[in-house]
Write the structure tokens for this entry.
Amino acid sequence: MEEKELKKKIILDCDPGMDDSMAIVMAVKSPALQVMAITTVNGNYPVDVTSANAQKVLELLGRTDIPVARGMAEPMFRDIPKDPFTHGKDGQAENFLPNPVTPLCEKHAVDLIIDVIKANPGEVYIVSTAPMSNIAMALKKAPEIKGMIAGIYAISGMFGLNAYAFANATGDTPQSEWNVYVDPEAASIVYNSGIDLVALGLDVATHFDVNLTEKDIERLRLSDKKEAHFLYNAIHFVNGRGFEAYCTVIDCMAVAYAIDETIVETFEAHVGVETKDGLTLGNTVVDYRHHHVWSHLPLVKIGKKADYSKFLNMLMELVLG
Ligand code: BDR
Ligand code: CA
């Protein structure tokens, strides 16, 4: 059997973003994954920037064989909101990687998602580290792919499981997560699609019991790998702005989960996405009740507890390896 056949096939739908950039590094370098496509979307930055940034990372890794398709330039029904967080002038923590020379895929990201899924029915997982505009649009355009997607692993939402989820909320309403907040209608379509969805929210992705140590950071500095220097610079960039290292690797949690599902413990619950404007726009509301639960809300697997030392070991091995 070919080695490729043993790998888990993924499409990485992203909006690089420094942490999306590191998620690309992990996915591409992992021997457990076969990255079928990278699709980009408006999110952390406009889609032209996120597309170029994805290409820059692939060029840095020497993996221009992986197609990058540019996707939705705006949320499905809304204007582009302003990100309260900044990933720097270049959207990559001011690493200022060289401009890409590889052409983008001729297909729109939505079409590439549809085509890859149809060509590999039941085999492809979507790793979503961005607003879900491309994925929702693909489901609208070709609803028949719903039953063909193996699953979606997403950095999405926050579920009120610990104080970090609230303290580090990334959307621009007090309790929302950025990817859902940007395009809540798209998130709602995906959550309600019936596709197996694992939502790794801020409860696990921005709450690090274990963090990168000074020794780890020094190993990154001393490495001869460009991607290690990228991460090293990104950590300094966020530290300089009063944030912790976790900001540079939030999206990596979804790739780590794709590689090894034991990294995050999950539980299943009914979840609704708030799409009405105002205080709670973009909130992912969990019905935790024992009685009178709203069973019409979709069942979603929610990230509850992560094994941070396993996650960080995997990250370091892949970045330095
Ligand atoms: C998400 O928001 C973005 O800034 C990050 O790239 C990540 O996907 C976390 O809420
Ligand atoms: Ca992202």
In short: The chain is about 35% helix and 15% strand.
